[in-house]
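Teaching note: in complex prediction, the entire set of molecules is handled at once rather than each chain in isolation. The prompt given to students was simply: 'Predict the structure of this complex.' The entities are:
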Amino acid sequence: MTVKFEEGIETEIEVRDLNLWYSDNHALKNISIEIPEKCITAFIGPSGCGKSTFIRCLNRMNDLITNCRTEGKVLVKGENIYEKEVDVVNLRKRVGMVFQKPNPFPMSIYENIAYGPRIHGERNKKKLDQIVEETLRSAALWDEVSDRLNSPALDLSGGQQQRLCIARTLAVKPEIILLDEPCSALDPISTSKIEDLMMKLKNNYTIVIVTHNMQQAARVSDYTAYFLLGELIEFGTARQIFEMPREKSTEDYITGRFG
Amino acid sequence: MRMDGKFKEHAIETVLLSTSAVTVVILFLICIFLFGEGAALFNEISFFDFLSGKFWYPTSEPPQFGLLPLFLGTLIVTVGAICISVPLGVASAIFISEIASAKVAGMLKPFIEILAGVPSVVYGFFGLVVIIPNLQKLLNLPTGQTALAGSIMLGIMALPTIISISEDAISAVPSFIKEGSLALGATRWQTIHRVTVPAALSGISAAVMLGIGRAIGETMTVMMVTGNTAIIPGFPDGFLAPVRTMTATIALEMGEVPQGSDHYHALFVIGAMLFVITLLINLIAESIKRRYMFKVGS
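The expected output is the structure of the full assembly:
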């Protein structure tokens, strides 16, 4: 499904006829969508509609699931990531992901951030210090943790842990950040901090977020896609989706008639 | 009718309680028995002399009861066993929980369980017939009955414990933590050795401790393959010489000693020492394990 983007905005991810099966369960049906660069695109829909499955297709996290089969194309900057010769490790470096449940590693705050650059070959301590500070600042966490970088990340609050996970993702310098219901385990204050952070990050990154919080989608997203039962029902600017949805089922969902 | 039901419940509870109380009582009685029978030795010689004595000549005149050769025998065999079983065991655990497909892992696990169920005397046979002649030929030794043979056998015998407990610890690392690593562009191997294994480290240490406990307490196999010479082993050349462990000493000599003699009491002291060592190891393993469960649970 294509939408006319605002002046000067290019397509970052183009998905063509994507189908996905978990064994015999046809979980995604003929999804076609173009996701704009340096914007926030939100996927909404009731539980089990395939929105999380779909976002996990964009960095091939579904490869980890046995019996999961995909067909179709996902083009990131024009390159089909489902080609055989694509280096998944490099893809995931370019397309970062933040998960529903904050999942910091059981290490110090510093080590959590330094982990990504390290596995990609950065050894210089000064450089790592710099990356840690920079990314924690961009994730609006520096002021809260700068005096205890060596304490365990698991001692942080849930909201701080989630921002740490975002910082950790930023540390490998991705182009795209996927957020899979990043606030569903957080309190309202932490949620608003993450939302502010997303608004700030979209200047430099393409952001895709799955959320079942419609207010959140309405607040933060520039473009919104509505999924139902494995199908992409409607895609448009957030304004259009929330103010004048074209499809009856979109309207039913956003007005809270089901979901 | 209702009273009947209540009575039945109560009776069942009482029976179950008393059966579990029996284990505690038995343990308690073993302690009293071991320590009581052993303590009599120290009317004759001092505890310190016993611990630091370099010679175990219980039947010479006068007899010498020095624990050192036996303790060091146990130590060298156990250290060797650890060097063999820890790398193998942890590597297998990683393979089974992280690398092998569910099908392959499912096929491997029963074999490991069977390995745990093989009687120790059968391991002894295997060592006697396969390991010892080959060691002798391969290393050109006067005898293949060496500490090394014991280490190899104990290493194999400790494997099931180390594998299955390490595997539990590694599998208990939540998949969302591994996903976090993979999503940063880490390879599967980077994820295993930088995230999964460190996160499971306390569980793995507990597994190693329990494996050591098993190795120290093992009797029959070591007795059959280590040659049983009560001489203080050198290091590292002691691996290629016969040694005698604490457990083997008890098993070999208990049948021969006159009841109530010093020698008899000395064997009890060795038993008590073994009891204390394995108890300590188990306690350490337990506390490490508890710490790790707390960590993963939070």
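Point out the following to students. Chain B has a mean pLDDT of 90. The two ends of chain B are 47 Å apart (CA to CA).
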